[in-house]
Amino acid sequence: MHDLAIIGGGPGGYVAAITGAQKGLKVLLVEKDTLGGTCLARGCIPTKSFFYDSKLFKAARTSTVLTGTQTLAIDPQKMKARKQQLVQTLSAGLESVIRSNGIKVVQGIGQLMSPGRVRIVAHDGSISLYEAHHILLATGSRPAVPSFIDVDGHLVQTTDEALDAEDIPRNLVIIGGGVIGLEMASIYLNLGSQVTIIELLPDIIMTEDHDIRRTMRQLLDRGGAAVFLNAAVQEIARQAERVAVTFKDETGGIQTLRADRLLVATGRTPVLDGIDPDQLGLATRGAFVKVNHRLETSLNGVYAIGDMVGGMMLAHKASAEAEAAVANILGADKTVKPEWIPRCIWGLAEIGAVGLTEEQARQTGRNIRTGKFPYSAGGAAMALGDTNGFTKIIGDADSGEILGVHILGEHATDLISEPVSAMIMESAVEDLYQAIRPHPTLSETVGEAARAWNNLAIHLPVFGTR
Amino acid sequence: MATEIVIPMLGITVEKGKIIEWLKNEGDPVEKGESIFVVEADKVTTEVESPASGILAKILLPEGVEVPLLTVVGVITRPGEEVPAKYLKAAAAVATTTPSGPEFAVSRPPPPAPTPVARTAEDVIRIVPAARKLAREKGLDLRTLTGTGPEGVILFKDVQTTAATVAEPSPKVSTLARRQAAKEGVFLAALQGSGVRGRVMRADVERAIRQEKAPRLGKVIPMDTMRQVIARRMSESAFNAPHIYFFTEIAMDPLLTFRQEILADFEVRYGRHLSINDFLIKAVALNILDFPILNATIRDKEILIPSDINIGLAVALPEGLIVPAIALADKAGLAEIAYQRTDLVKRAQSGKLTMAEIERGTFTISSLAQYDITQFTAIINPPQSGILTVGKTREELYLLNGNVASRKVATFGLAVDHRIIDGVVAAEFLQHLKLKLEKPTFTFLHL
Asked: Which CATH code is given to the segment(s) A2-143+269-339?
């Protein structure tokens, strides 16, 4: 009898396992594939490996100081090998950490039989049964593909296949201008592919602030990407070794694009292998498992976290929920506030964001003030050689509460952590410029944006009268 | 030229006064004769008028500080006129010493020299307005401040001194929590922090605000019309009519037996259920015929004795109490009384009584016989002059011809308006009622 059985060993499940073990629980962790889940094997980590490789390539090719860059080439097989090595190293490291915590790891598909009972089907078909006082579902998600598109893994791919590809397509169509579509587009643009993005919604990365979206669209445009918004893909056809994508554009006209490859990045759907909501009486919300603020499902003693419960489908959101769920299992009443979950995108520029967008903040009816500081006004970005970007802070003008921070540009994904800490510690915007910032660093833009929020920026000219 | 404002002479025996409220702020224009502050001396408060028209340029005495009469407490200047330097000095002085300096007070025995007074929660915290504002901004608990002003009044500089010693921003309180606390006037020092290492977070402040409101305020129930009327009439009666109370024990066996004997026949003949209350109402009405003063009402300097005897019966309702009156209870037979009582009680409970049925009462019976209440007093239902209370009928042992016997007995109480009913009359009324109830056959013979 275990205290806690966790189905899924991704960034939700393994963090829950370690947290539970730290609290003295006897933990069982079931993983069907590799520990680390999608994040490590097919998501965050592989894409970042490719992202930095592609970025290095592009930086070298466009360098004004390197010579001989005209003949520079990048080897996709070596990219893949590096990625695989990376994944392997991380997975092995993770496994040793998990085992050192005394966590029992079982390979196989975990099936939820009823509250308290888990059945594990191993890859060889053997079956084992386990009982646990509490069960945590953390099965994650997989790419969601519209029914009229058949993924063959070669001409038509999802990220699962794209991250194992050994060649770089000359031209590529990506369906979906969300986070995944944008990150993949950036990798291929950096590698020199022609990229077209077809997005059904009125804008790319619709969850982000309008300033972020506008700047990102400009960067895509300058980077040579074609972006079709309000465009609905209607048909996929294969012709020889090429794929033809027919879609209705925003004017209602029908267009067909031919490309070497089609990447489908139309979102992700929860993995419910071995979990039958109907049979179990497990409540769902759309495709996702329904949980309350304590991350409890409708079944007694069964919790669920991560991508499978919906919301932001991010590794660190799952990890945060993992900690909260374990605390709640032990009697706490913890909720993961979506406002405090940072969102990061590695695109042609990095995006780090947390909290409300300006539109959302204004909709609260509060007295909103924004402060913005461009990368171009700081020495660090100039020296680094990329001044595309800005830091934008949205705060409550009355209380100083930091409502949202949006950073676009180099190191944005790292820079966002400081505002996240500040928000969790309930700092006011003014607190952000109490800290002394090392010069010259991009972190200065956070302090300057906070100062700008109070009309006190040092490195901005004053327009009109103060 | 500047005009001094002083605490005026407030009476021959009064020596000191304190301003409990400034009605004007520094910088406000004032008119001669306009009330400018409220002074309290010997528990009497008086509004003091401005001695001149102009600008209230300087307040020299904060609220709540007791000073000798004729102390200069403020200065009025004409528009554009500077405040004379001596008053500014005086203002500084009031912050550090007692307001008895020669520059702004007539000679009086000086009050004891101020010593820093540590505050306790029970004290009324006296603090100058600017200091209070600063303390709020800094999120300081007024109770933790030490005042160095006259009689321990907390001065601006005291808050400044304390604020300087409190590290800001304190690592123990989040910025947003501090700001919310300042806005809502929550004392951070008293809060338990729920954050990392006991850090006070905004949720803690919000919880404190909720809790502070809850126990202090409790629940507010607006009085409905009935409760307002009850409240007004009860206090009117209690304050206007001096009540005197009399109690007697009445043996109930004869009446209970009598009722039992006639109950069945009565129901057959009249179709009504006869309650003990019906007998009480009748007996009281008959008794009032013998003592008409119990039916009286005071009107100015006259005593009014209505010819009708209408006996009110207090009926408890969920939201209060109502007293419909059985009309002409002296003339009515038991059947009629039973009919009226049943009807009135029923309509009282459904809120369908008429004003006339309530107002016509000339005497009231209030019974708690259903409860374990042996005896109780009641407030006379104005403008009536008497009210009879009935306790629970209980069994007791007593001596009958030297032998121990048991009987059923109830304690009856009578409250009368002593302005018009003497004690002896009340005693005789109750005595006679006792006789009537203990000899029911005789009493109700002619019915």
From this structure: 3.50.50.60
